[in-house]
Amino acid sequence: MTSTRPSRQGDTFSSRHVGAITGDRGRMLGTLGADSLTRLIELAAPADILDPVDAASLPAATDEAGVRRELTALAARNHPGRPLIGRGYHGTVTPAVIRRNVLENPSWYTAYTPYQPEISQGRLEALINFQQMVEDLTALDVANSSLLDEATAAAEAMLLARRASRAKSRRFLIGDAVLDQVRAVLAGRAEALDIELVEADLTDPRSWGPQVEQGCFGVLADYPDGHGRIWHPGDLFEAVHAAKGICVAECDILALALLTPPGEMGADVAVGSTQRFGVPLGFGGPHAGYMAVRKGLERQLPGRLVGASRDADGIPAYRLALQTREQHIRRDRATSNICTAQVLLAVMAGMYAVWHGPRGIRRIATRVHAQTVRLAEGLRAAGFPIGVEPFFDTLRIRVPGGARNLWEAARTAGFTLDLIDDDTLGISLDETVTDEEVADLVGLCGSAHDPAPAVTGADAGWEWPTALIRTSDYLTHPVFNSFGSETAMMRYLKRLADRDFGLDRGMIPLGSCTMKLNAAIEMEPISWPAFADLHPYAPASDAEGSLAMIADLETWLAQLTGYDTVSLQPNAGSQGEYAGLLAIRGYHHSRGEDGRRVCLVPSSAHGTNAASAALAGMRVVVVASDEAGNIDLADLAAKIATHSDELAAIMITYPSTHGVYETQVRRVCRMVHDAGGQVYIDGANLNALVGVARPGEIGGDVSHLNLHKTFAIPHGGGGPGVGPLAAKAHLAPFMPGSPVGTRVDHPLAGGGTVEHSGHPVAAATFGSAGVLPISWAYIRLMGLDGLREATGQAVLNANYVARRLGSRIPVLYTGANGLVAHECILDLRPLTHDTGITVDDVAKRLIDYGFHAPTMSFPVSGTLMVEPTESEDLSELDRFCEAMLAIVDEAGKVAAGDWPADDNPLVNAPHPAARLLDDEWHHPYSRREAAYPGMVASATRDAEAGLHVNPVTRIQAKYWPPVGRIDNAYGDRHLVCSCPPPEAFEEH
């Protein structure tokens, strides 16, 4: 059957964002008995939750040219200047080859977390490069594949120390010069978990000695410290080890190119930021934090760890190691609620090291230090009391009573320094600072002295003690010494990208993950210098454009969700959950109800919910689900009765993790409120609500929102993410505050502003502000009508898939009128029972069909959770359905005995090209059936069913998996989390 493909109507952005064209949508709705998207929502969702947003609350949609003009105007209001503030954030040069081929390349930024390693080999190799870089520079044995930022890494290290320490103490020692944002995040974590933070001058044994003698389970030593001083923590580490504590070094990654690394001074753990390795400032993020540990602590690492293993053919391959540590498995017993990473930024930082190599990294570090020495000599000549303490890139200048005047003079000259107090200025140099600028800075301080640019630290009298000078090699692996030309680097990045599967190749139908279009127009601004080069601690007058954009976004998100205030600080959904629970905890504390520490968590909830509750100092009580997948109201009532005086909150996901709009959600909220608890609604599934229902009006007190799911920020291979917190006004004072102590006002629904004063959860006030232009542009382009259409189409696409597959693959849970929300759970357990083909076999076979697998075995083991999103068109949905039906047919051949149970295309999937090109082929199916499955059968079936399928889909470009099925058990038994030597790959 052939027909003319109907054209799109109108030329709005939403008509390009939403995949279905007019005629296709009508056909899809017809299969479900609805005549419009509005009617479909009415059939699928309970009437008492539908609460359309006021059309006047959001600006009307604009087109791409309009949004570019508006963003250009906002960018023009920013003035990045030359920020020499430091405080953990530094200017850097992103190599153009990395910016163009990674940051701005959809092959990298549209990929999902590498849970399917066979189609993630490029990204996994890039991450193991990152891990190797961190291991080398810290001289520690194992590094994870990044954390959310430096402050988060420090907080996670504190918790690791508590788990690993043999000390009985609840005290944790930190330096009195630690960065303000790190101290603030540590304080919030410590308070929630009854940890006592103790500050001391870690450079002085007279200060830290008595504290260690009193007992501590660990120490965090900053190296260099927050004042810029370099010191040797060896004696401190030895004393803490004697007290059975764990030693954590917080290190500047660039300084470690010259300084003795922490692993050679006795540190058990090293943490920090890799931002200055080519990742733009971005007004505070996103940036990849790092953590490395000594041997023996690898199973205590939070987050993700990439390791080497082998595939079914014995070929070396990469995958996520120690996967049982994933938080959705361990729940409230998890070591952390961090189940994400900053993959895209870690890839950039790792590739920065690949591009520059060890000589280049050393050259950059040496030049930064030499420029700082030159500045110090000039200031000394001008009469400033620059001491003789060793430093790397940061100076503190005493200007009694005159610091502000000198700061203003520097501002006039285009520099922004660190105004510490009325008597003290800080200056931090970086790789972008020129000789001329150093001379200008010296001149500003009233000196005509212009020291020679070639001066070195030793020649100037700033010699470091021998014990602080690094003598060990680093970045010796060939990957850091093989790509000296741009041609070679470009080809390496292309080669890795080709080994991955992203949205630029095909649909990624992952349930609960919302892999939707990240439009190019939305992505463009994140590379603009006006947004990318803005320091997070720049004066507000320098950031007027970004602050206006942030205020818009906070206002729009509050209006779309029915809450009163929004914080954009959490830079992952897990942080948003944690911040929301801290706000609830703070609220109860303000009312004298500290005993409210029980958090009810439905059995179907996201695994991070339980982990977040535990980290917030709450006790998790699980609420059962009924046979329909809804919260069991009888069990909920019983749990509330049992814990009525202790009830702090319930965490629910709406629509539920089972993929349906639960009909009794308002009743659940009332039951908890009547018992004095608060309602946290997880925003993971907000893509089924925007524009048609608002969690704040359903009964929620607080929600996190996941901009990387519903509001178009790309997943980036597993990060960046943004998990804003939206709350009712009574929780506003307990929302995360500014980590640097400055007062920040946030828009309040109905007018006015409010200050958030709770403990910060991230290093920067606005978290990953560098990617916020994406969501701002998405909302401006879509407008309220477009957002409603996206929600309706997401629900339509999920129900279309469920209806088309339901006769052959049961849909586990449905709601009203047999409909699902924006995702559906396909129950493969009957197929497994009848044929022996498992959910893993189906997931791997989908790779041969050119698809990323849906979410496997979550929230129900042996199932696939499918979320098509609104961005996929009908032909792609049909292609997926054809693949699933063909796989069912293949499983039937196994059950019928046509193919052996241990040798068939499903258990052998996926099929890499190397296997198919082997001289010998001894399988009972053909090479064509292995590599190009189901094409003839699906075409015949569609013709018989009278289905219209675009012929273009029949010529779908073949994705060749680079490896076969990976042996995870082998990798965990032979844990290797560093770059394998080249000879490991030679024989293959």
From TrEMBL:
KW Oxidoreductase (keyword) present = yes
> Which GO BP terms sit in this record?
glycine decarboxylation via glycine cleavage system
Quaternary structure? The glycine cleavage system is composed of four proteins: P, T, L and H.
EC number assigned by the record: 1.4.4.2
One Gene Ontology cellular component: glycine cleavage complex
- Per its UniProt record, what SUPFAM superfamilies does this chain match? PLP-dependent transferases (SSF53383)
N6-(pyridoxal phosphate)lysine: residues bearing it: 709
What UniProt keywords apply to this chain's record, in alphabetical order? Answer: Oxidoreductase, Pyridoxal phosphate
This protein's superkingdom? Bacteria
Q: Where is the Glycine dehydrogenase C-terminal domain?
A: 790-911
Q: Which NCBIfam families match?
A: gcvP, PRK04366.1
Q: What does this protein do?
A: The glycine cleavage system catalyzes the degradation of glycine. The P protein binds the alpha-amino group of glycine through its pyridoxal phosphate cofactor; CO(2) is released and the remaining methylamine moiety is then transferred to the lipoamide cofactor of the H protein.
This protein's name: Glycine dehydrogenase (decarboxylating)
Which InterPro entries has this protein been placed in?
GcvP, GDC-P_C, GDC-P_N, GDC_P, PyrdxlP-dep_Trfase, PyrdxlP-dep_Trfase_major, PyrdxlP-dep_Trfase_small
The cofactor(s) it depends on are:
pyridoxal 5'-phosphate
Query: In what residue span(s) does the Glycine cleavage system P-protein N-terminal domain sit?
Result: 16-442, 484-745
- Catalysed reactions listed for this entry: N(6)-[(R)-lipoyl]-L-lysyl-[glycine-cleavage complex H protein] + glycine + H(+) = N(6)-[(R)-S(8)-aminomethyldihydrolipoyl]-L-lysyl-[glycine-cleavage complex H protein] + CO2
- Transmembrane regions listed in the UniProt entry: none
Molecular function GO labels? glycine binding; glycine dehydrogenase (decarboxylating) activity; pyridoxal phosphate binding
Organism the protein comes from = Acidipropionibacterium acidipropionici
Q: PANTHER family this protein is in?
A: GLYCINE DEHYDROGENASE (DECARBOXYLATING), MITOCHONDRIAL, GLYCINE DEHYDROGENASE, DECARBOXYLATING
Q: Which Pfam families match?
A: GcvP2_C, GDC-P
